[in-house]
Amino acid sequence: MHRLLLTFVCGLMLLGRSSRAEPPPADPAFDERVAPVLIRRCIGCHSGADPKGGLDLSRKDAALAGGESGVSIQPGDAEGSLLWQRVRDGDMPPKEALSAEEQQTLEAWIDRGAPWGTDPLDPFRFTTEQRAGYDWWSLQPLQPAPLPRVNNAAWLNDPIDAFVLGRLEQAGLAPSPQADRKTLIRRLSFDLLGLPPSPEAVAAFEADDRPDAYERLVDQLLASPQYGVRWGRAWLDVARFGESQGFERDKLRENAWPYRDWVIDAWNADMAYDEFIRLQLAGDVLRSGDPSAIVATGFLVAGPYDEVGQKQQSAAMRAVVRQDELEDYVSTVGESFLGLTVHCARCHDHKFDPIFQREYYQLAAALEGVTHGERRLAYLEQERRRKHVEAEIAALRRQLGELDHRVRERILSSTDTPAAEPPPTPLARWSFEGNTADALGVLDATLHGGARLESGGLTLNGRGAYAASAPLAKDLRAKTLEAWVRLDDLNQSGGGVLSVQTLDGAVFDAIVFGERDPGQWMAGSDSFRRSQSFAAPPETEAAQRLVHVALVYEEDGTITGYREGQPYGQSYRSSGPVVFAAGKSQVVFGLRHAPPGGNRLLHGAIAAAQLYDRALTAEEVARSAAAGESVTEERLLAAMTVEERAQRDVWAEQLETLTAKLPPLQSQEVYTVASMSPGPSHVLLRGNPATPSEPVKPGGIAALVGVSPEFGLSGEASDAARRMQLAEWIASPQNPLTARVMVNRLWHYHFGVGLVDTPSDFGFSGGRPSHPELLDYLAREFIASDWSIKQLQRKIVISSTYRQASRRQEAAYAQDANNRLLWRKTPQRLDAEALRDAILAAAGELNESLGGPGFRDFTTYVHNTQFYTMQDPIGSEYNRRSVYRTWVRSARSRFLDVFDCPDPSTKTPKRAVTVTPLQALSLLNNVFVLRMSDRMADRVRREAGEDVEQQVERAFQWVYARSPTQEEKQTIAPFVKSHGLSEFCRVLMNSNEFLYVE
Amino acid sequence: MDRLNRSEWSSGLLDRRQWFTWTKYGLGGAALAALLAQEGRVAAAPVPGQAEDLPPHHAPRAKRAIHICLTGGLSQVDSFDYKPALEKFHGKTLSSEEKPDVFFGKVGLLRKNDWAFHQHGASGLWISDLFPHLARMADELTVIRSMVADTSNHTPATFQENTGFRLNGFPVLGAWLSFGMGCETDELPAYVVIPDARGVPAGGSINWTNGFLPAQHQGVVIRSQGTPIDDLFPAQARTATTEQASRGLLDALNRRHLADHGEEDELAARIRSYQLAAKMQMAVPDVARLDDETQTTHDLYGLHGEKTGDFGRACLLTRRLLERGVRFVQLFAGGAFGSPRINWDGHENMVANHGQEAARIDQPVAALLKDLRQRGMLDDTLVLFTSEFGRTPFTQADSDQLGEGRDHNQYGFSVWLAGAGLKHGMAYGATDEIGWKSVEKPVPWPDFHATVLHLLGIDHERLTYYHNGIQRRLTNVHGHVIHDLLA
Q: Domain B59-228+290-485, what fold?
């Protein structure tokens, strides 16, 4: 009764009003109650350029004007309003009717005269069933979360585990038990390095009963330079890194590789992630004098470039190509750092996320000064400076050397050593006093991989530094190796002090520290052929002072160790001696044997070394040790006058300063960002450069809570200012997406699935976090640790969650087949590169050298377009890790491709894992696999001898990191006897246990 | 079964030495049969990356398709789009308000068609003497004369022709079909590519990329001469006994591993992939054995003709692939750009260039249509014959010169379809008086793609794959099925 009357009255009022063409008054209640209903439930379809039924409910005028079916709102008369009729009858919205409350709100609103509030409605105000709004989870600031309470607190090893276990317990599930040590080391090794563990490493880890053995292993792996190789590749996927132009010409980019090296170096150095972002976006303008910062911007231009399109005659088409280029930058920046598909707003407001078309063009404007180019880095000025510094360094070294020499002579002449006989005369002597010359012969050495000469002698960083001599001038059989050495770390394992080796490193005799027996000196040799334990006490002093070590190799194969001039443990009879042929052998320092890598490098310093072409007697070794003591720094310093010592300190300090100042070695053409002066930017209607609309200034996206989209720049701002602001906006700890996206990316690689399973899309179309509190916890920790990636990864891999076994538990599987709750560690197939690298490693053919131009598994010619013919090149340089391939877009490696190596033109945050018969054919038949099967058989034979069961044992260790069972041995031995060891290696390389990491 | 029992695989069209080695020392049919007999011990596992909203979305008209890609740009006014007015304007300046915005920027005088046009078949379709054999198949063709592309730059235009996008990194039609439809056989790949015998097109494998789709949907190159596909057999020969023992041992190791791991789907799928590989090892040499065909068939395809041999082999191989269940075969007629020209990019001299190219493919393509028709296969096979764009009716020369070559034309060009579900012997749409721009019912690539997918039982809006925030489609946000073409 009442309502009817009211309607009638309102209708009259409205009639009167509309006849005077006066709009209904603005109404705050509309914003609070009505707008949310319209935004959430109606304007998903009824707004925009082409609203459904021609009815646009997002703007007052349009809403009141109605659509194709006529006027839809009769203000004051809900019953007479088409809109209300359709809603009441359940026709609209088509999928799910409005709630009674929502219906009432609309009805009452129309009856009240349909007063409007803020106009137009902001479609992004709320998240709806069709799209994300400003309240979308990933756009909100990081939330601190209390650790969930759990029942099984004993399981927790890191706060991560509390979040995981909390969810599991809620679901009534239990975590899996911890995996065994063999599984753990294989998992960690592939995960952190992309390489299998050596049998020795597995054995050492199994034998390590220290409580923190696992943590030590993690730290050791994180410190390996191969870590950056593995993780750099992951970032290159995200960065769509390719080394050719793509499109028609696909011209080879000869100089794109420095960016790849920069990425790997950044991961190895644990560069703070915010810095990692800044340098890739704006390194060239932030640090214009720093070549590595300029190289970093290779990120922006790592994608394809339409050379022909950019040069075509038609200006209109060129403009389209340039817009496509900008979209490539915007999409890469948006997806990689923010997990936002900003580029979807190029033609219209984003359909799913709260990103306006204008904001796309604001970001494009921030990158408007960017294009592809090449720059020559390390300028002439730098080269001149470098030469100057080098000359200063040489002069200082000479002065220091002369001073030390003078003092040494003084010590020796005043010594009242009773020993009547002089020390024996070596074949070669290296005193490493300012030079690497052989003081007695022709075996001058050269420095490699960052080895340096300092006052303590040859200084070795354990990561790549070593020295190598010229080839031997005469054959060597019986011999004595002698060195004065200091170690930086008594826990290191496998580094060589002094080694005589064939030039390829295949055969060697070396003074090695801690390779088999922790802390002990050993006579290292190829595959331990001539190695046995001296069963001596572990070294305890070499970290504090120089220690004298010598190995004597006699004609009958006997090898005797000496330390400080005294016999070291038990001597033994080996199968030696080996002949090291003149011209084909050499001496290396700090390296067990070539090639450098693995655990072969020594961390410490060698003060002096001597090589004898005969076996010294015990007395001779003792005399030499006594005489050599004079080279110790302590004695030298003790014998100096106060003035001399002061002078020496000054020079040493100068030397250090100068060495640190040494500019980079050489200039290098680098494919990187060419900076242009940006022109004006506009919103382009439908993304078309022929229809520019309102002008825009560089800026960000308003929907990100915590960071201002306002860059404070005018439309005329320089390229430098634009990109610096962009970098700051993204790399801000207040940016809600940056840290979340990166920690999730890391989690994705460690577990195979991210907490958000779409690592480059945190928007509406992407996945929702399986553990939102954990995600925010990790993001906050990440920022709190100054964006340290290694620290975050250490946390992750040390967690109990990560250490779980991967066997399927049927109950948990039935409930959560995809393991989103993390009740086990899902087995992961080796990715394409890890598979190839693991095959090389198992075959003993992996060349672990780092950096520099990539290898090319193709030949190329130019016939207008550049063409690439795939090849199967043989040789150590092609056996480098797969990341060092030259990644031409049209020269994809068939072998890597079938194992889901992505098209380098696509941004790939997540690789597919497919199983196909073409993979089977490749792994069975590809020439590379067959060749490596042969090489692996050679190695296994070398290491295990002729006994077939031993061979099977060794092969299993290399490929599966475990020993075969008795039953397996019995099955396999007859196979090996009939079909050969190589064939068996081929089978192993095809097997699931090899391809999957538990 | 018949195929399994064959003991000799030698073929005149394959590298004899290789085949000799293989059949003498390699894995024989019996060994393979033994491997295949193991099948069934592992349940088929779902292949990761298969489409969720699986086609068919409606009753398909065609089950399989052939895509003949003419690289470089076929001249519509010299082939399928007859413009009598051009004879009138021959040697005259284009009278247009608008200065043509052409790729090389040179707009010479108008040039009439270099090949005479005639009406053919019952349909009376106009086809020029450039394609005399194809002309006899006029009543099979459904010609679209109003195609438009977004660019006149070869490679982006080719990307658009194949992927719907102008950029690198998107999956091609064949990859989408492999993804959406899978294969009718598990012995051969779903999507096969046969490049021009003279060389691959510019961009090489970019032209058959899976883009962001899983790698298994990348086109597999099968050569009509030499080794048909890579890594089909061991790079170093093995005896059949060894091969069989190795595969047996591998199978045993894998099954034991599987038993230890609670029947993981992926591990089981890998075991099965080795059985499928064995099937491919049987099927691929068999399909490539063109010698099995009769002399009449050889002659029909021009297998022994000097100019027609290459493409004839490709077309015949195509038919054999389709017969055995391959879903999509893409043939390239034309290699890379540059000089000497080995594709349709007739900038300098149309007569020489198009004459040379057409002579290579005319008879083989006509033979393929005829052969498919005779075998009843055209009833459920779709044939596509396209070029990334057309050529200008005016010559590429100075403004007062009548040149002999034509520049790229994105605004109007012709393609044709044949086979299942189409109205045959018709032409759709029209260009303007001189054949420069589409003026009647223009067809952009997404409409063409939507129509092709429709014929194959696929709703182009429902064949999607999530990549970086978007449910991607072959047709992006565009595409309308051209119902006027459908029977």
A: Alkaline Phosphatase, subunit A (3.40.720)
